[in-house]
Design goal:
Strand content: 15-25%
Oligomer: single chain
Number of strands: 12
Radius of gyration: 22 Å
Structural class: alpha+beta
Largest sheet: 8 strands, mixed
Number of helices: 8
Shape: globular
Distance between the termini: 19 Å
Strand order of the largest sheet: 6-5-4-1-7-10-11-12
């Protein structure tokens, strides 16, 4: 990966923990036939019920959500959305605010517990809830009126093929909804549920969650933990400054282990695809220059590492951080990568 437009700066120490992640295989659906039955009567286990999704959600439900001591509700809930917003304010990024109890929320709670010196269970409890109340002063939601600028520079679509991407002038947002969801650290579907019937056009007033203010600090060490899939930033005194969810390399293109140095930072980078140095995408066998934009292969930030072709970068699909794998790099949400 070769993004350009680097901004050179002071070296940072970077460590990628070499913890391997063992993923147990799930048993197959077919079960051995009990004694005395034929193979034709094998029994498949009942599939677990799908997590419940909210049909809609209101700002009041988020603001007034309370913890009853039994953990976060399964599926999607106003309480989980509230916890995600408070975690974001605390410097522990939940990734996208989407109201879903899942892997990213669990990893964020673990990171919060680690910083607070609590047992790292990843589950909501009274100790976590009480500490989060220190960030619950200002409103969690607000009104926002869409302006003309929000609708400028949009593109019709982002093609998956890199040759088609290279033929474009920008890897920009595809809709006002996508742009505003990213600005307010939200999942697009969740933003739509918060505003049922909204057209997301200039002049319209909508409800959004209030994102955390950017953290200002001097980072001297970054730890990427493959097992927890988190990126933690520390200052010179060893204090955790911020912690983010991440996608790390796949088994085919694993992220490098060991200690590395941050050599440079590129904001709004172009992206050079080189199948002879990196991976093969589709049928593309020649070098391609892909224009910048938040929907580009590395999002809107590239943090270059001393390990050639590897870096920390943004992503066009923030809600998929824990569902997809990178080509060996470390992928954050665009807003988390920009803050880092």
């Amino acid at each position: 990966m070769f993004p350009t437009r680097f901004r050179r700066g002071a070296f940072l120490r970077f460590a990628l923990m070499a913890t391997t992640l063992a993923i147990p295989l799930s048993p197959g659906w077919a079960q051995a036939a009990p004694s005395g039955t034929s193979a034709a009567t094998t029994i498949a286990p009942t599939a677990p019920p799908r997590p419940k999704a909210l049909v809609s959600i209101t700002p009041a439900e988020i603001e007034q959500a309370t913890y009853d001591g039994t953990g976060l509700p399964p599926g999607q809930s106003a309480l989980t959305a509230k916890v995600q917003i408070l975690l974001d304010r605390s410097g522990i990024s939940p990734g996208v605010v989407d109201g879903w109890r899942g892997g990213m929320s669990e990893s964020a709670i673990k990171a919060f517990q680690r910083r607070a010196g609590l047992p790292m269970t990843g589950r909501m409890d009274h100790a976590v809830w009480e500490l989060l109340q220190g960030y619950a002063g200002p409103p969690l939601t607000m009104e926002y009126t869409i302006v003309e600028k929000d609708a400028t520079g949009l593109v019709d679509r982002i093609p998956p093929d890199y040759a088609e991407k290279a033929a474009m002038t920008s890897q920009g947002y595809t809709s006002v909804l996508e742009r505003l969801a990213e600005r307010f650290h939200m999942d697009e579907k969740f933003l739509a549920k918060l505003n049922p019937g909204a057209s997301f056009q200039p002049g319209e007033t909508i409800h959004v969650t209030v994102p955390a203010k950017p953290i200002r600090a001097t980072v001297t060490r970054i730890i990427v933990d493959k097992e927890t899939r988190r990126v933690a930033a520390y200052d010179a005194r060893g204090n955790m400054v911020a912690d983010y969810p991440a996608t790390v390399g796949s088994s085919d293109t694993p992220s490098p282990h060991g200690n590395h140095v941050v050599d440079a930072v590129a904001l709004n980078p172009t992206y050079t695809y080189n199948p002879h140095r990196n991976f093969k995408q589709g049928q593309n066998d020649r070098v391609l220059i892909i224009p910048p934009g938040p929907n580009g292969p590395v999002g809107n930030v590239w943090i270059d590492l001393s390990e050639p072709t590897y870096g920390i970068h943004g992503t066009a699909t923030p809600s998929q951080l824990f569902l997809s794998q990178s080509h060996g790099c470390v992928r954050l949400t665009n807003w988390d990568a920009w803050e880092l």
